[in-house]
Amino acid sequence: MRQPARPRWIASLLLAFACIASHATPAATRKSPTPRLHYTIVTHRFDVVDSGRPPDERSMARQVEWSYPVFTVTRDPATAALNAWVRLQSLQLLLGDAPDVAQLSDEQAVAKAVADQDFIDGGADQASIVPASALGRLRGFRYYGESIGGNHPIHGLTSHLFNLDARKEVSVESLFKADDDGILPALYDAQVQPPNPVCTGREFGWADVTLRSADTLVFDYPYEPGHKHGDVDCDFIVIESPQVTRLLKSPRRLRPDYALEDDTPRPLVHHRAKKSAASEPAATP
After folding, report:
1. 9 lies in some domain
2. pTM of the prediction?
3. Helices 106-115 & 78-95, crossing angle to 10 degrees?
């Protein structure tokens, strides 16, 4: 018996589905593009001269580098709060917790550092904040500090985490469940084996942690004389394990995992103390 002809609209619909199916990528192999988060680094380099030195030593200026990131403004109002927080953190890293530091422009901060005897005597030559991760509504940073001291510079390195929803700094530890079985310290110890004198004193501590992703913790330590980068590099330790994910209170909060894009133009702003105490004009976000 002859089958009745399909209505034309049904035939067209079936043809459209067939075309889509022939070009579609299976869901299992389809991969979403990694979202990107853009920022620039504002960097100021200026010379500090100690007027208290003998006249023949005053030409021995110390160059200081101060830098911090500025994230591209989006429709999210929390981005402005993030940028303001990061800049304040960088000012405090450079000048300390002076009560008026938040009101300083970049140019005023440079002028204060150049003229402040406590800053000059402290020997600081670097105060930098660098983005380290962007996971969901969390933004991770590393703070770098360096000052002149004896035969070797004194280095400082700390990790910090900002919550865009709370608009304040939070601890990495607060994102994890109680680790009563000591899983994370055990994973850490496994990364510094076999025992090596270079690793003396290294142990798991939340203050040293950067949360790189939902399954990765990075411990990045400041340089110390005698810590060679040979058989065991104890200045940089990575824990990558599904056990990290299982210990998180809410792994979904760390999605998406953004790729950080540095759009910093060159050249850098440079201030010279010999021109004036205020130096050259500085870029202010």
Report:
1. no
2. 0.78
3. 10
